[in-house]
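QUALITY CONTROL LOG
STEP: pairwise intake check
CHECKER ROLE: data steward
CRITERIA: each record must contain a sequence immediately followed by its structure tokens, with no blank fields

ENTRY 1 OF 2
RESULT FIELD BELOW
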Amino acid sequence: MKHLFLFIALAGSLAFGQTAPQHNPPKPDRMKTIQALHEGADYMLALKTADLFLTAWISGEWDVAQSMLNVRLSEPDGEFESFMVSACPCAYEVNHGKKLRPGTYEFPVVLFRPPAGNSRIAVQHSAIVVSRGREDRWVIEKLP
């Protein structure tokens, strides 16, 4: 019992010697935090754009997918049409992306297409590039 009181007394004195955490971090740390949050928000918006585009591909919503393209990709050269016409039902996986330059991200994707006849499921490894366009609108720069 004597040792218990000694332990409580020592533990209580340690608690008084501690300092409270700072509520306002120094200004440089706050700026780094704000910048990291902004970059994280950009990453999430780019990932969301890639996911919405690929979801429109699966569901066959051409108008939604085309509205997300960069202007040069939406010109009639057949690349968009050939991508959208591919056999479905389809599936995709989006992997962790990387920042190419400010406002532009590349996401590795795996596209799955149904088998043709007795063959296996068609698997295509590719990448989709998303960038922030005019008026903070995120667009697809490169199709998978």
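ENTRY 2 OF 2
RESULT FIELD BELOW
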Amino acid sequence: MGEGNQDAFTDLVRSTRAWATAHAYALIRDRARAEDCVQQTFLEVWSTASRYDRARGGAKGWILTVLRHRALDEIRATESDRRRLEHFEFREYRWADVIDSTSELVHARLDGYVVREALTGLSAEERELITLSYWSGLSHSQIAQRLDLPLGTVKTRLRRGLHKLREQVVFE
């Protein structure tokens, strides 16, 4: 496989896919995200196969290491998204129920205005992805499925849109 043999790679995927998916699911606890993680793992295994060193361990151990790193990255990203959503929901709750100062109300409305204005500077695709991710709370995998786009495309466009948004929005 390290020499680009596609048949060897196909055999490896067939013989380890169920095992890898079970391990990913045990870590991530979400079937769709676990399958995405396994797919990304096999893409990395294929692209780095020439660096595999049998002397350092078996193929399953190598795949498990790559898979574990991918799964932990996915868990961290999901946890980060969850914290941002909780923070956003807390701010919305606080604004709606506890604002007792006209100054706070004005700042909250200005923040919302700044974000809405910045969103208009993005492409329709970027705006839709950000809206689905942050306001609808969908995962990257769910967005990819809903829009029938490859997961990598969703991640790239979302990252690009957030970068543009970050350049335009400055809160003090």
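INTAKE CHECK: passed for both entries
DESCRIPTIVE NOTE, ENTRY 2: The chain has two domains: 6-75, 99-168.
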